[in-house]
Backbone:
């Protein structure tokens, strides 16, 4: 389905020069003379690279049909990751390659958004923050309180993060899924 470039919306997927792209941001500019310009900041679903594409307001863009589903993480068997649909209870297996960036944030029953394009899973987006339990952490050095000291901690998924000295094994922490950094205690 082709639409005029001015009708592109954030989150949509479109095809451009044989590449499928997802819209991250749109900037609509109207210069003093001439037609409006639409700058689309987008990410390639094939390569993962971000780029900005410039369209004239009259350009046509091919929109690709997408399906977003909220799925719950169930388990991994070492080769694939299994998710369940809370509506239909169907189990879907996703490859480890697709989950490379988020696999150390996944815990049982965590709800994630999965983007499907033409029936194929393309991206997995966890919520902005997840709660994980600390499994290993060294003792903080007493008196070492200058300049916000931190120490490494290993979480239940194997993720290693820098945490304040007061964090100990058994604590539940909030972790930012975009940066994979400590936010606060849960």
Residues:
């Amino acid at each position: 389905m082709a639409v005029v470039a001015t009708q592109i919306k954030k989150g949509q997927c479109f095809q451009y020069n044989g590449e499928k792209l997802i819209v991250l941001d749109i900037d609509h500019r109207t210069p003093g003379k001439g037609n409006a310009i639409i700058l689309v900041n987008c990410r390639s679903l094939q390569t993962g690279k971000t780029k900005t594409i410039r369209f004239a307001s009259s350009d046509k863009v091919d929109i690709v049909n997408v399906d977003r589903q909220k799925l719950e993480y169930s388990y991994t068997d070492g080769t694939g990751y299994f998710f369940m649909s809370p509506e239909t209870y169907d189990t879907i297996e996703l490859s480890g390659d697709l989950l490379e960036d988020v696999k150390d944030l996944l815990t049982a029953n965590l709800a994630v958004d999965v983007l499907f394009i033409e029936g194929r899973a393309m991206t997995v987006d966890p919520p902005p923050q997840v709660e994980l339990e600390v499994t290993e952490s060294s003792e903080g050095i007493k008196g070492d309180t200058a300049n916000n000291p931190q120490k490494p901690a290993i979480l239940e998924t194997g993720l290693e993060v820098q945490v304040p000295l007061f964090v100990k094994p058994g604590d539940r922490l909030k972790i930012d899924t975009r940066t994979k950094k400590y936010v606060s205690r849960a």
Observations:
- The mean pLDDT is 87.
- The chain has no helices and 16 strands.
- The domain at 66-125 is CATH 2.40.50.140 (OB fold (Dihydrolipoamide Acetyltransferase, E2P)).
- Residues 133 and 172 are 4 Å apart (CA to CA).
